[in-house]
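Schema walk-through. Below, the input block comes first and the output block second. Nothing else is stored per chain. Lengths vary across the set, and this one has 166 residues.
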Amino acid sequence: MTKKIKRPNWDEYFMKVAYLVSERASCLRRKVGAVLVKDKQILATGYNGAPSGIDHCEEVGCLREQLRVPSGERHEICRGLHAEQNVILQAARHGVSVCGSCLYITNAPCSICAKMIVNAGIEEIVVSDLYPDDMAKQILEEAKVKVRQYNISEAKTSTEQEPLKA
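--- output ---
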């Protein structure tokens, strides 16, 4: 008799990779990981943190934290890049087209990242945790980018997931 091996479904697999990638994040407030996928193949990964070659927030401090800026506000004063920005930039740096891809990310995108996702041609986003940015939801909905929430702890197959309501 052959023993059946439990394997993660594709959503669980790629979301677990996103969480692993988030462990490299250098942000003091939130660790976020992103994985771009096309045809069940990983194109690029990204996490949030300072640009290459400059000091990380743990070395120089976090201005948003010092000013007590609430989550979801004043992104422009952060020295770090978001995971979504980094994953798109990593793909571009290596000449990989992300058009038609799916983005797995540990947190839903902000409005700045949502605009980048739309213009990069990413067709679907699978998020684990939500983020307080109604404009991002509106932008993605208007651009017809499919957004789904996938919670690893619930471990449902991708066919059982309901679309995320904007």
